[in-house]
Batch of 4 targets.
Target 1
Amino acid sequence: MSEVTNIISEPEADPKGDELSIKSPRIVFIRSLAHSGSTLLDMLISSHPDVVSVGEVVRFNKYPNSQCACQRIIWDCPFWKAVEEVMRARFDLTLRDLQQWAGDRETFERHNLALFDGVREVSGKHVIVDSSKHINRLKHLVESEQLDVLPIHLIRNPLGVVYSHVRRGDDWRYHARQYAKGLIATQDYLRRRPHIEVRYDDLVNDPNNTLARVMEGIGLNYDPDQLNWAGRTRHNCNGNRKVRYSKDSTIRMDSDWRKGLTRSQKLGVSLLTLKSRIPGRFHYDALRGRVRKVLSW
């Protein structure tokens, strides 16, 4: 896809009158590999006055003692309790009933629509950020007939992603291969679908202009105060704790990989991920409607 077009879908006409209605809130889904900066991007987007974030909601029931960003356990958070009340009244579902990974389409759509409808009702916001990252969840959401979903593909250079795993004791070869596999699969899926691509380096080095382009793609006017993202009251769950609980809005480049990886590891990562970085496979400047060919990081 050489440019992002028709990103904002038109509301459907209400058959009962002349007013327009929207089937569901707009879901901005952040797709990325782990350790790519998805929590930071989530925080920046959801600092807009018309946006709310649920965070990595796909992990809601996998980690039952997860903390909300308000630093309460999810089940004890007043916001999520209110969301549950709406879900119970409208869909006869509780938060613990949610099957965000339901295999059949009917259950998947009903449970996720219940969740997002509850969040919209309680927050009063019509744009909801879901930073769950997983490509299978992205596919289910995008292909749902009941949900209005805009994917954001966040891309970080492979050296930074792989090193984040290496310093946790993981094998760099495995994660280099996973990087290439994940990037190619995501781009192949999104190639002919409206979406936004964001490069981590652009977000960190030029957050003002990068975020402005992202908000334009979402269909909202950029608010410079979004850069003052830290320390706000939020209720997104899971994700990078250091970022979620930060009181400092300074955005810093994580380039520890430069010293942390050996020369041979850098070369190996570059070679194992080369296929995913062939010029023309993807572009970073889609919002400006032109391809940027990347030969190296």
Target 2
Amino acid sequence: MPSIQANGISLEYSEQGRPDDPVIVLVMGLGTQMVAWPDSLSNGLASLGFRVVLFDNRDVGLSSDTGSQSIDELTGMVQRVLMGAKTKPPYTLDDMAADTVGLMDALSISRAHIVGISMGGMISQLVAAQCPERVESLTLIMTSSGNPELPPGKPEALAALFSPRPGGNDREAIVAHTMKTYRIIGSPGFQMSDADLRAWVERSADRAYRPAAPLRHLLAVLSSGDRREVVKRITCPTLVMHGIDDPLVPIEAGRELAAIIPGAQSRFVPGMGHDLAESLMPIWIEAISTHCRSVSPDGRTTPARTVEAP
């Protein structure tokens, strides 16, 4: 996979599809590499006539390491933020939004359909609000506005998110920890077999493992705070997708985004949790491709509607 200089750092990226096709940029979530996007998703979208660009966010995978803090330092910073103290994060979601736009600049992409998942959805909100001329359409998957009044995730899901990650020398411990996490936050209606989940987890573990990255990402999310006023400025055609059974970012977060983004459409999926289960991909491919294709030359979509997906 190639790398490119963007926003002053190196970002590892990959592309599928023809160069002249409409571009979809996939923005990944907290601490997760681009190889976690199922091949069936990127290949499926490419087969439908899209140029699909995916990349490693800073600090994960093969992109630049942009922090110097130790695990203990970062853990202490997270604890202080959770207790209400002010702490300067290594970087912000605004920086990561600038990374995304910088990648588009480096690849000579003037406008793109932006698809963001979880933290990637938060980054995508900022791209759409701050650089509307660069965004053809927006798809937000299992993400939130940062509204502190929204219901929290289930205790076991939050515990999995905040649990210490193993050191970098014990591959089996890394794999077991990640599999346990995804069993807790995953989709009850679209579960992967143990063999498929292990293969998916091992793919990332063998490519790169940076236990500090999720903590830096988490600090960026926590420091972003309440983005509702920013989200309300989004003007591009927007689709909100969310799992009705998401234990980490409850469905109320998706419903709120759909309500406060002008003209947003929504698709709420029973049985979907907070993962990228292979059996979800046909639903995602259909929803994303239909939304992107619905954008007319003047940038508008059909009237807002809500779909409870089967």
Target 3
Amino acid sequence: MSALPLSFSYDLLSATLRKHPRRWLVTGGAGFIGSHLVEELLNLRQSVVVLDNLSSGSWRNLDEVRTAVEVDAWASLEIREGDIRDLDACAAACKEADVVLHQAAIASVPASIEDPHTTHDVNVTGTLNLLAAARDAGAKRFVYASSSAVYGTDPNPSKQEDKVGYLLSPYAASKAICETYAQTFFQCYKLPTVGLRYFNVFGPRQDPAGPYAAVIPLWIEAALSQEPIFVNGDGGTTRDFVSVRNVVQANLQAAMAPEDSVAGEAFNIGSGEQIDLNELIRHIGDILNEQFPGRSVPATVYREPRVGDIRHSLADVSKAEGNLGFRPRVRFKDGLAETLAWYAGQSAAAQD
């Protein structure tokens, strides 16, 4: 496995894609991360197919994409409403696809603990269906979303791809199994697969509703509405929060990097910056006051930690930097400010 030259950059990648467009399948393309991928690909004048059953994604996300891209770019999008547990739906969506960006999943630790069977069916069987469909369609690259949850009980403060511990949830198990299947499909069938171990992704369009909502949209919504912020644990839990724009960047770089640099491998995708939850609340308060002078962060309420949660999480992104050319383009505070402004805009629009 060889490293990329330092001259490889996202700007160069973007120019290459504009000059030589490809056909892309984005599973979960109506979801949070998926819709940002669709938007970037359409802006780069690619042909895009979305496969989504709308269980967690929404037409609203795609409507927002429509307003963000040129009319002729939107015409290059095909939307298929279907389930990745349906092998025929996967086969039809993969037809003529050059690249598969597989984002569809049940991405919740608590949901997986409550219902491990459904998590397995969607995450494992669904991924196996797509791998087989991509193989049969002759796809040139299969990039899939894995998770930092695969590190489990690994005690190392900075997570490195070759060091994992015992898994702490069925969700983590499902992602580890998907990595094994992807590596096997590369070894057996020469399908070039690339796994991206997302750390804590945040950004516009992330759903703050429901009992399993991610912490940043949940707390931003609470701050905007001046309701208490609930913290699971003492606030000393640390996370590597990464902007969705950096995750989009990583997906496209994984799709375009030389095969011998990435195929059959998994890479950490994070910011390389560790922030504890108490510090995150302070950042939200600072940005809230900047965007809405005089408004302060509401009261913080601490409660019991959640079962299955990892105490500390930090991405070592050196492997992704060397082999994907991944260098996060959006800093954490800038991404947080953009995210808070987006939620504020959504709140204002809902009141009109």
Target 4
Amino acid sequence: MAKDDYDVIVFKILTYLYSCIKRKITFNIKVFEAVLSKNNIPDEYLADILQMMTEEKLIKGLSFIHAWGQDCICISNYNEMKITADGIKYLKDNSKMNEVKQYLVSVPGLVADLINLVFN
């Protein structure tokens, strides 16, 4: 699985936000960006994913505008984003999310630590 695959990014975002709502961690933009490997994800792609997640009601708290053409820009701070009940169900019950979890839990690092924090 590629680091910039849609499902991998969605899993990382939902897991991070779930750990925040469970009060295991507090939101920290630098940690959030590290979890996402933000350096490997174009801002426009991340904004598109966050907008899709908002439209699917997996997350809430973000606002978007369309700048030019198809480009979508997030006009909220990331720390305003929260996981929804639907987002928690999707994270726990979706087969693709379980597949991503099984893959990422075996890769040592920050994401595996978050998975263990949230799911154990």
